[in-house]
Amino acid sequence: MITSTHYMLLSAALFMIGVVGVMVRRNIIIIFMSIELILNAVNINLIAFSYQLQNVIGQVFAVFVIAVAAAEAAVGLGIILAFYRNKETVNIDEMNLMRW
Amino acid sequence: MAQAIAFYFLAACILGFAVLVVSAKDTVHSVLFLVLDFLFVAALYVLLGAQFLAAIQVLVYAGGIVVLYLFVVMLVNLKRPPEAHVDPHRQGRMGFWLSAAVLIELGAIALWGSASPAPAAAPLPTPMTGNTEQVGWMLYTNYLIPFEIASMLLLVAMIGAIVLAKREL
Fold first, then answer.
1. Which residues of chain B lie closer than 8 angstroms to A39, CB-CB?
2. B90-120 pLDDT, tens digit each
3. What's B118's DSSP letter?
4. What residue numbers bound the domain in which B133 lies?
5. Which residues of chain A, if any, have pLDDT below 50?
6. Which residue of B13, B25, B72, B98 to mutate against A (max A Cβ within 10 Å)?
7. The model's pTM
8. What percent of chain A has pLDDT over 70?
9. Where are the alpha helices (DSSP H) in B48-85?
10. Which domain range does residue A59 map to?
11. Nearest-CA neighbor of B41 among A32, A52, A46?
12. pLDDT at A36
């Protein structure tokens, strides 16, 4: 029998994979994709609880998460393009203009 | 039983493709694995009775966001070799330890939660209306203000992306 614990463990594992991607990879495009994986893990959690509690509000929150993810992807990729035009790189180690 | 088989199959596919997204050498391959991952997550939403969310996932994520990623991957020249670094493994090591810390934290939470396991999910009662209608009803009544704010956010993001991507800032 699949309980919501199973869904939470799946969500935690997906979240971990995203965190490892953010921390280990240097290509900023891959880092953005890892953030999308993290947001998907959050959505799985919300919808699993929506199913568990038989309440549709969790799905409404997931809609908002998807809207924010779309906005984040658009702005983030715009920043990547603007940065690439200036520095000709997508390596995050070279993005240190604002480092003190 | 069928639900358990479907869940384990989908979970294995989701986690496997997520690992491939993070570990792929070629960024284009990574984006394509991301599409497959999103599609399997959409299938999981159907398993959880959220058909509207599954359709949104396919349309917005697998259809829209991933195309945006592919455009950026095409516009950016990834073939150029990265510059030599003082210690190329420094970030890898630090990332490993930070990830291990997060894993330990999640494991502690899981152990804490397994002391009182969640009750089995109730079987879905036959709803009076469709899932899309329920979500839409909630979205346009109780959550109308957040909905309008989300539309404002999307407008701001759209203008911001266009301004950022312009030739001269």
1. none
2. 666 777 888 888 888 888 887 887 776 666 5
3. P
4. 128-169
5. none
6. B72
7. 0.84
8. 99
9. 51-56, 66-75
10. 4-94
11. A46
12. 94
In angstroms, the CA B169 to CA B166 distance is 6
B123, part of any domain: no
- Tens digit of each residue's pLDDT (9 = 90 or more) over B119-148: 655 555 555 567 888 888 888 998 999 999
CB within 8 Å: A67 and B91: no
- Taking an 8 Å cut-off on Cβ atoms, the answer to whether A2 and B158 are in contact is no
B135 belongs to a structural domain: yes
A99 lies in some domain = no
Q: Tell me if B102 is assigned to some domain.
A: no
Enter the tokens of residue B32: 């394509």
Q: How far apart are CA B43 and CA B65, in angstroms?
A: 18
CA angle B88, A31, B168 (to 5 degrees): 100
Best of B3, B7, B13, B14 to substitute, by most chain A Cβ atoms within 10 angstroms, is B14
In chain B, how long is the greatest CA-to-CA distance?
Answer: 64
Model ipTM? 0.91
